[in-house]
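Ticket reopened. Same input as before:
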Amino acid sequence: MNFVSKNLTIFLTIFQENSEKEKAKEASLADLKSSYYCDLCEKQYLKHSEYDNHVNSYDHAHKQVSNHSLILLPSRAMPLNAKPPSR
Ligand SMILES: [Zn+2]
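Engineering reply: fixed in the latest deploy. New output:
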């Protein structure tokens, strides 16, 4: 029984060390992806002006619209306060 619990402790220690490393990796990745990163288009910009330009660009707007329509495509998805179509 001691053998098993000792092994388990070792395993948990290794597991914890690994997840610590993973967290550090994620943090550095997040650092790399600075505030000038467009999640929507998965584009990284180094300058604020470039990022600003992109956000206002057709490409970005188009992506935004197509992303939204994907969500809104189900015809029954209606805003709560929307009136039913009158016929
Ligand atoms: Zn974008």
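The mean pLDDT is 76. Residues 38, 40-41, 43, 54, 60, 63 surround zinc ion (CB under 6 Å). Please confirm and we'll close it.
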